[in-house]
Amino acid sequence: MAGLITRFAPSPTGPLHLGHAFSALTAFDLAQSAGGTFLLRIEDIDTARCRPAFEAGIFDDLHWLGLSWPTPVLRQSTRGPAYAAALARLEALGVTYRCTCTRGDIRAALSAPQEGAPMIGPDGPVYPGTCRTAGTSDPNAAIRLDMGRAVALTGPLRFLERGPLHAGEHRLDPDALIDGVGDIVLARRDIGTSYHLSVVVDDAAQAITHVVRGEDLFAATAVHVVLQALLALPHPVYHHHRLIRDETGKRLAKRDDARAIARYRADGLSPADVRAMVGL
Ligand code: GLU
User: What is the pLDDT of residues 165-215, one digit of tens each?
Assistant: First the structure.
C-alpha cells in the first residue's frame, strides 16, 4: 500500500471533540500502518462560522494526540480559483442550473399537500427542483447540480469501501441519487462553493487515496463520487467509520464541549486515555 495518502479535514467552527479524535486517529493510524502520508486540511470555506481560535485549537489538540503532518496545510479559504474552475467545467457539461430559492421557499414547496413526506438527502430535505423547471438568470443565484442530467452523463458509478461497516464495492443507483439525494448545491451564493465541490476538488489536488470519515457522511460520499466522475477525477477508496456517541446514543456535535479534547487535556487525561475512550 505504498503511496497511501489520507487526510483529516476539520472545519474550525468549534472545538474538536472525541468524534474528531477518533476520525483523525483512524486516518493517521491507517497512513502509519501503510507507510503512507497523513495530511491535515482546514475546511474554512464558511468564513462566517470559522474562527482562528478554533483553528489554533485544532493544531494544538492534534499535536497533543501525537499526530504530525506535512506543512503548510491546505486551507480551503485560499482555493477559490480552483473551485471556480471546477464549477465552470460542470457548467460547460450542462449539468448545473441557477437557483434563487431560499430555505423558506423550499420548505413551502415541500409542504404542498401533493408532495408527501420529503426525502432527506445529505444536505437535508431533497430540493424539489423548482428552479430546474422555472429557470433564472440571476447572477447572484446559487448553483445546483442537475442530478438527473449528471447521472445520465456519467453512466454506472461505483466506489470501493474498506471500512468495517460497509466493506466492499458499492454501486450507486441512479434513481436513488435522483430521488434520495437530488439537486445538491454546488455553489452557495455567499461563498461561491460548497462543502461537496471543495472536498472533491481538494481530495484530487492532494492526491488523497483513502478518505476516512464518519458514516454520517456516507450519503455525501455518493455525491462526491458523481462529481469525481463528471470532473474526470480519480475515486479515492473510502473508509466510513462508526460515530462516537454520548451515553444517550446521540452522536457528538461541535457544541458538546463536555467531550472536547481540550477539556480532557485540562482534566489531566493522556492521549492514551483518549485513544482508549474511543475504542482504539
Ligand atoms: N469538514 C468536514 C467535516 O468536518 C469534512 C470531512 C470530510 O469530507 O471527510 O465534517
Answer: 999 999 999 999 999 999 999 999 999 999 999 999 999 999 999 999 999
Distance 116 CA to ligand 1 centre (A): 31
CB 246 within 8 A of CB 278: no
Same structural domain for residues 95 and 183? yes
Residues 266, 259: Cα–Cα separation, whole Å: 12
Of 139, 73, 151, whose CA–CA distance to 100 is shortest? 139
Mutate to test the pocket of ligand 1, among 16, 61, 195 (most ligand atoms within 8 A of CB): 195
Q: Are residues 85 and 71 in the same domain?
A: no
Both 131 and 217 in a single domain? Answer: yes
The pLDDT mean for the chain works out to: 95
Instruction: Write the DSSP symbol of residue 251.
Output: B
- Say how many domains are in the chain: 2
In which domain, by residue range, is 72 found? 1-78+245-280
